[in-house]
Each structure stands twice: as structure tokens, then as C-alpha cells.
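Subject: sequence -> C-alpha cells, single chain

Hey, anyone have a minute? Need the predicted structure for the following. Not urgent.
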Amino acid sequence: MWMTVGERRFAITLADTAAARAFVARLPLTLDMAELNGNEKHADMPQVLPTHAERPGTIENGDLMLYGSSTVVIFYKTFRSSYSYTRLGRVEDPNGLSQALGTRNSRVVFSGN
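Reply:
Had a minute. Here:
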């Protein structure tokens, strides 16, 4: 799967979860993602996805997660967290992800190819 932010394209390795399979079934998908906490972008899906939330402890730069049953989150910094998420996937090479997403809201396109 691919994630495109502006001119930058990032390969995403999908997690082996029902949520990831349901997410891919909705591609292509464009989300206007809001900035939050200086470390993530988030957007609500129009439909709920299956969940199997876990507390990862440490969020890694490039993690693609589902918060609750409909909020897609892309993290662009590594930090500790006590929140629970369902894993969707991970950006294979997150170098430049923070710069591509910037400090404001971002339009992100998810596609299968």
C-alpha cells in the first residue's frame, strides 16, 4: 500500500489484522488529517473498522494505527503512550515523513498502487 503526502510517496507494510484488511478494501482513500500534539495526524473514516486495540507502550515514527473504531492516525515521531490502538501498518522508511506532513493539517492519499 502507498501513502502520498504532497509530492512524497511512502510505502506502507500492512499489519495482519482485520482492521488493515478492511482499510485496504476502502482504497483509494483521501483523508484531510488534522494535526495533534506535534507528533500525529488523524482523521475519521466514514465507516467503522474492526478493532483489536492494544497498548503498544511506545509509538514509533511511521506507525499507522486506528484509534477507537474509525479514527485513522499516522504518527511521525516516536514517543511513549498509554493509549490503545489497533495496528493498521507501518511506513517502511519514515525518513522525511515529519517534513512531508508538516506542522499543519495534511491531505493524505492512501492507495493500493
